Amino acid sequence: MPIDKDIGEKNEDPAAAMKQENVEAKGSGKNARILIVDDDENIRRVLVAILEDEGYMVDSVGTGKKGIEATKRKFYNMALIDIRLPDMEGTELLTQLKDTTPRMRKIIITGYPTLQNAIEAVNRRADGYVMKPFDVKKVLETIEDQLKKQEEEKTYSQSKVAEFIETRVKELTAEQQLENKNT
What we know:
Elements: H1 14-26, E1 33-37, H2 41-53, E2 57-61, H3 64-73, E3 78-82, H4 90-96, E4 105-110, H5 115-123, E5 128-131, H6 136-182
Parallel strand pairs: 1-2, 1-3, 3-4, 4-5
């Protein structure tokens, strides 16, 4: 199982790649794309294996910089971020990953659980905090819970856009009718 897979220097068409990935994922019942950012190759391998077995599409990288680059090239529903990376703190990476719509869910993973780390992660908009060694069931529950919340945000956003369009169409229709009366 390759590490840092699909994180090369490819310049693929993001829309075409995303469409293809969604088609491929529908067969597995899940279409979430997850990025793992952890400098421990063994942790990455284990997480990749577990998450792919669950039907997720998974990429993994070993540094914060590579994580930032990955999010510039692809859409990810979620990032699992180690709190200690060789080039930056995971809490710093939380704010540097590309913003997306719907908002990418970000979960800090740590073998160094402290109150300070937890507070900093929350202040920098972490959506979850998972401790090593992993309880696989808890990790999967956390991921599923966060993806459900993301889907709810997406549905809410879509309904707000539809509401705006409907209101704007009514406004334009009223303006047009007023213009027609005045001419």
